[in-house]
Amino acid sequence: MAETRIAPAPPAPPSASAPRPSKVPKTERGRRTLRALLNAAAEEFGEKGFHDAAISQITARAGVATGSFYVYFDSKEAIFQALVRDLSGQVKDFVGPSIAAAPNQLAAETAGQLAYLNFVRQHKEIYRIIDESEFVDPAAYREHYTNSAARIAARLEAAAQRGEISPGNSEVRAWAIMGMNVFLGLRFGVWGDEPPESVVQETGRLLAHGLTPPAATDTPA
């Protein structure tokens, strides 16, 4: 029987009121200032949430003049939107090398989980920011998850073709793995301090064998 595939979800339409993207700095000094603003925004939004955060506090945290903010962003909404995409990129860049260095796909998924847990422990604010983006900027929220799932699905599809994992619907599997990663990060990255290595040891068994019990061994009569 031919494999049934689920069509990818269509991208969310951009909001008519979406702010303009940040201006791209042309100098190293400008790039440092932009980085300082995004880091400060992560602290401000992570501590206070979107509605209570203030541009004046973001610039104070960044150590730049308030006027410098408007060189790069038009509004608080604009820097929040840029921050969501920046955090998504940071996760990808942090996790990517661990996945690429793994010897096979099952090892790659657990290596990615371990790297993600370590990232979350360093950036716990990511959960509040991403969760708020569902209401502040739904398009960025959807983009964050659909892009992540697409990367996982592509890895799984390639691994299935290489014979490293069983064939199946890569999109469904990708969203299932991503969902597991998200809540592992919440429980063991944000809320808990259990060693990440012990967490991914268990999830590695789950990915490799599912919940099926081991086959009973024959015993001599």
From TrEMBL:
Q: Which residues form the HTH tetR-type domain?
A: 31-91
Q: What are the record keywords, sorted?
A: DNA-binding
Q: Does the keyword DNA-binding apply?
A: yes
Domain of life of the source: Bacteria
Cited Gene3D superfamilies: Homeodomain-like, Tetracycline Repressor, domain 2
What InterPro entries does this protein's entry cite?
A: Homeodomain-like_sf (IPR009057), HTH-type_TetR-like_transc_reg (IPR050109), HTH_TetR (IPR001647), Tet_transcr_reg_TetR-rel_C_sf (IPR036271)
Annotated spans, Disordered? 1-29
Q: Which residues bind DNA?
A: 54-73
Q: What protein am I looking at?
A: TetR/AcrR family transcriptional regulator
